[in-house]
């Protein structure tokens, strides 16, 4: 079965591509185990974080997931996540730095991590859906039962 993760982040940060990359990676990795082939990802609209009026919708939707992934594009110079946004959820919150294939300078990574830590993310992951980087670690997290 595995865990259900809800992805939250502004439009264009890479949520849908990541969902698909996780599914594809899982499919190829576990191609002989037909039962566990589909990852459980809730891909939320960017509007939910871009407009404060939708925060409630995010919180309501989070009831259906086991953990929340805040997605921050490493090329994005700004963040939409309020300080300690994670505390609004009654679920564990991880931070996902996306598009690390475009992170030529270390500063971009550090900046994205800082935004996610300020938002209250416990653990930070680095991914590139284009280069299938960092996907295994997230799949492992979703596969664990505790
Ligand atoms: N360089 C790079 N671009 C990406 C990556 N993931 C997504 N993108 C691009 O970023 C844009 C927005 O991606 P999308 O998944 O639709 O973002 P969403 O709005 O958060 O669902 C698209 O043009 C994607 O091709 C990645 O890992 N690396
Ligand atoms: Mg999308």
UniProtKB/TrEMBL annotation:
Keyword ATP-binding: no
GO terms classed as biological process: biogenic amine metabolic process
Keyword Membrane: no
Coiled coil: none
Pfam families: PduV-EutP
Gene3D superfamilies associated with the record: P-loop containing nucleotide triphosphate hydrolases
Keyword annotations from UniProtKB, A to Z: Nucleotide-binding
Any GO MF annotation of the entry: ATP binding
Superkingdom as given in the UniProt entry: Bacteria
Family: Belongs to the EutP/PduV family.
Name of the protein this chain belongs to: EutP/PduV family microcompartment system protein
